[in-house]
Write a structure and sequence with these properties.
Number of domains: 1
Radius of gyration: 15 Å
CATH architecture: 3-Layer(aba) Sandwich
Largest sheet: 7 strands, mixed
Distance between the termini: 38 Å
Shape: globular
Helix content: 25-40%
Order of helices and strands: HHEEHEEHEHHEE
Number of strands: 7
Strand order of the largest sheet: 3-2-1-4-5-7-6
Oligomer: single chain
Bound molecules: S-adenosylmethionine
Strand content: 15-25%
Number of helices: 6
C-alpha cells in the first residue's frame, strides 16, 4: 500500500509541499455554496468546508471517506465509488467540483468521467488541477505523484472543451510557489 493512502500522511505531505491550498481554492469552490454539489474524488474533504450542507463527495479510498464521515458527523454525505465505474443517477446535482484529481486518469477515462459529470449536473463544473511546469525540482515531485497524468494547461482545456462550455479559466500558484494550478469554470 502507498503510504499516502493514509489520510493523515496525505494531508501532511500536501501541507509540506503545497502549503495551505484551501485559501487559494476557496474563491473558486465557494462559488458553488448553497447548491447541491457533487465533489468527484473528494479525498480528505478539502472542498467540503467550502460548500454548504448539500454536499456529496465520493472517492475510491475508503480510509479518506471514513475520516471525513467522522469529521462531518453526517452533515455531509460521503460515499465510495470508483470514478471509472460511475453509478450515480443522471441529473442529480446542481453542480460538480473536481480538485486535483484529473491527473489520476488517462485521457480516455477522463473523457468518460467528464461525460458522466455533465449528465449528473444542471449547472456548473468547477475544475482545478496541477499542471506541468518547467522547474526541475517540481518535475521530480510530479514524477513521484501517485497520479501519473499531469497535463499542460492547453491539454486540460482541450479535454474539457470537448464536453463543456468554458466560461473562464485562470492559472495560479499557491503557497510555496511550487505547484502551478489551473482553474476552469465549466458550464453545461
Ligand atoms: C490528489 S487527491 C485530491 C483529493 C481532493 N480532491 C483534494 O483536493 O484534496 C486525488 C484523489 O483522487 C482519488 N481517486 C483516484 N482514483 C480514483 C478513482 N478511480 N475513483 C475515485 N477516486 C479516485 C484518490 O483516492 C484521491 O483522494
Amino acid at each position: 500500500m502507498n503510504i499516502t493512502y493514509l489520510p493523515a500522511i496525505y494531508d501532511a505531505i500536501q501541507w509540506l509541499l503545497a502549503g495551505n491550498v484551501s485559501e487559494y481554492f476557496a474563491k473558486y469552490i465557494s462559488l458553488l455554496k448553497g447548491q447541491r454539489v457533487l465533489d468527484a474524488c473528494c479525498g480528505t474533504g478539502l472542498a467540503a468546508d467550502m460548500i454548504g450542507t448539500n454536499y456529496f463527495g465520493f472517492d475510491i479510498n475508503f480510509r479518506y471517506l471514513k475520516m471525513n464521515a467522522k469529521k462531518y458527523d453526517r452533515k455531509k454525505i460521503f460515499f465510495q465509488m470508483d470514478a471509472t465505474a460511475w453509478s450515480i443517477y443522471p441529473a442529480s446535482f446542481d453542480s460538480a467540483v473536481m480538485v486535483c484529481a484529473a491527473h489520476h486518469f488517462p485521457d480516455e477515462a477522463l473523457h468518460n468521467l467528464f461525460s458522466n459529470i455533465i449528465q449528473s449536473i444542471s449547472g456548473r463544473f468547477v475544475f482545478i488541477d496541477i499542471v506541468t511546469v518547467t522547474n526541475p525540482f517540481v518535475k521530480i515531485l510530479h514524477r513521484l505523484d501517485v497520479g501519473k497524468y499531469i497535463r499542460s494547461v492547453e491539454e486540460n482545456l482541450s479535454l474539457l472543451r470537448s464536453h463543456f462550455e468554458l466560461a473562464a479559466h485562470e492559472v495560479f500558484f499557491a503557497d510555496r510557489r511550487l505547484y502551478k494550478y489551473l482553474y476552469v469554470d465549466c458550464r453545461r
